[in-house]
């Protein structure tokens, strides 16, 4: 067989060795049945890892975040110096794939032949030199020209909705669908104050919900009743747990709103964005790809560091509800496949974030309040305007409706105040 045929066969075979979410979940299920969860971590004396982060021209990147994660998700992190050099101490012996990100650069993990993960081995009481890792500029894929026409934007329903809070809250609602990247996205909604004149622009508020958008109607109606044009979207089932694909759907929705596709009542101002729970992972990707188009964001019970969240999962500290209960093992072993975890960890690119409001309950059993503390520390260190509201309540979400609590009422008005001070008017 000719050599080039052999190489092609090897490349295809190795590509097939890349684990799928299904195989990752199967491996987790089997290891759980065998009693080998959480993933074992060496208790031998730790070692250290050193290396460099470069750009495509071979120049050092200062201030890059470099991470290696234990099999149970616990991250070890360092920043590069002016020469692009990093040093991570206290790493348990074992095999790891370093990953890195920097402001303006895409996340990347160390790879070798055929793009497969390149392992580095940490040994006790020794320093391991990793190969240099190159970062490429982060360039989101351009959206189509004539966007509304290109994606076949269409109305699917028009109706009026009400909410118990605030008193007499009501909104005129338009449901939309569009076709994008092989999926029909039918989870897009526009909420306007009931009876609002169609030609009077309202400030735009952009919502990314973690579960079906209509389940959050009370929240959307509540904010619309406060004289906002609320554009809301939630994950579509066709995307599964691909948060990056969901983020690009949200980016399309944001671009539509700002282009006037929803009519003159939707202002062209840069909106505030809000998400919570696992939709914060979608929102964090949206902030990377369209952050300049947002004036701030609010995260409620959100994800800040997917590595530490994975560690909490493997340690049995959190209880993740369906349909996300197997999301962590679906991403693969964090020590070998760190990239998806890094992509959903805004704590490592806090300097890119707009003004930030963090809301979290100490009683959260889905994403612990330590996520909020970690993000707040990173945002404050980056000099980004920050507000926090920590509270004692059973709810992981922003509950406005029949289950409204005093904390929910307080959250609502604190968000309105944040919108007033950091938001833009049309």
Describe the fold and architecture.
The protein is α/β, with parallel strands linked by helices. Mean pLDDT is 90; it is low at 1-16. It has eleven helices and 19 strands. The strands form four sheets. A nine-stranded mixed sheet has the order 11-12-13-15-14-16-17-18-19, sandwiched between helices. Strands 1, 4, 9 and 10 form a four-stranded mixed sheet that branches. A four-stranded antiparallel sheet has the order 3-2-6-7, with no helix packed on it.
- Gyration radius over CA: 23 Å
Q: Briefly note the structural class of the backbone.
A: alpha/beta
Low-confidence regions: 1-16
From the N-terminal CA to the C-terminal CA, the straight-line distance is 67 Å
Helix content, binned percent:
25-40%
In round numbers, the mean pLDDT is 90
Brief overview, please?
By secondary structure, this protein is an alpha/beta fold.
Topology:
Elements: H1 3-16, H2 21-34, E1 47-54, E2 65-69, E3 75-79, E4 85-91, E5 94-96, E6 99-101, E7 108-109, E8 120-122, E9 127-129, E10 133-134, H3 147-150, E11 154-163, E12 169-180, E13 183-193, E14 204-208, H4 217-224, E15 229-233, H5 243-259, E16 272-276, H6 279-290, E17 296-300, H7 306-314, H8 327-330, H9 339-343, E18 356-361, H10 370-381, E19 386-391, H11 406-422
Parallel strand pairs: 1-9, 1-10, 14-15, 14-16, 16-17, 17-18, 18-19
Antiparallel strand pairs: 1-4, 2-3, 2-6, 5-8, 6-7, 11-12, 12-13, 13-15
């Amino acid at each position: 067989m000719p050599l080039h045929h052999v190489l092609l066969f090897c490349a295809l075979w190795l590509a097939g060795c890349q684990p799928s979410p299904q195989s990752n979940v199967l491996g987790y299920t089997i290891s759980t049945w065998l009693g080998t969860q959480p993933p074992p971590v060496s208790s031998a004396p730790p070692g250290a890892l050193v290396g460099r982060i470069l750009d495509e021209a071979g120049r050092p990147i200062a201030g890059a975040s470099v991470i290696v994660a234990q099999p149970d998700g616990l991250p070890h992190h360092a920043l590069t110096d002016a020469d692009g050099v990093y040093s991570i101490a206290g790493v348990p012996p074992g095999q790891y794939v370093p990953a890195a990100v920097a402001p303006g650069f895409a996340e990347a993990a160390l790879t070798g032949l055929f793009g497969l993960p390149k392992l580095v081995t940490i040994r006790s009481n020794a320093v391991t030199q990793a190969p240099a890792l190159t970062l490429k500029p982060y360039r989101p894929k351009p959206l189509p020209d004539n966007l509304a026409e290109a994606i076949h934007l269409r109305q699917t329903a028009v109706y009026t909705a009400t909410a118990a809070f605030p008193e007499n809250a009501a909104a005129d609602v338009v449901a939309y669908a569009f076709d994008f990247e092989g999926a029909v996205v039918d989870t897009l909604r526009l909420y306007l104050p009931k009876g609002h004149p169609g030609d009077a622009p309202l400030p735009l508020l952009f919502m990314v919900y973690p579960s079906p958008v209509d389940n959050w109607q009370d929240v959307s109606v509540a904010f619309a009743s406060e004289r906002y044009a609320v554009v809301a979207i939630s994950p579509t089932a066709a995307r599964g747990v691909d948060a990056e694909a969901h983020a690009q759907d949200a980016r399309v929705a944001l671009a539509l709103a700002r282009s006037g596709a929803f009519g003159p009542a939707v202002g062209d101002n840069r909106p505030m964005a809000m998400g919570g729970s696992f939709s914060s992972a979608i929102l964090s990707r949206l902030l990377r790809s369209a952050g300049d188009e947002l004036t701030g964001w609010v995260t409620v019970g959100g994800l800040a560091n997917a590595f530490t969240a994975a560690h909490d999962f493997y340690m049995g500290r959190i209880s993740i509800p369906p349909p996300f209960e197997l999301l962590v093992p679906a991403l693969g072993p964090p020590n070998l496949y760190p990239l998806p975890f890094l992509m959903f960890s805004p704590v490592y690119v806090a300097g890119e974030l707009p003004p930030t409001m963090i809301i979290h309950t100490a009683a959260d059993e889905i994403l612990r309040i330590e996520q909020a503390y970690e993000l707040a520390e990173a945002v404050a260190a980056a000099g980004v305007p920050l507000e926090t509201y920590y509270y004692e309540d059973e709810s992981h979400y922003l509950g406005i409706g029949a289950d409204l609590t005093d904390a929910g009422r307080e959250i609502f008005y604190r968000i309105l105040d944040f919108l007033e001070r950091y938001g833009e008017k049309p």
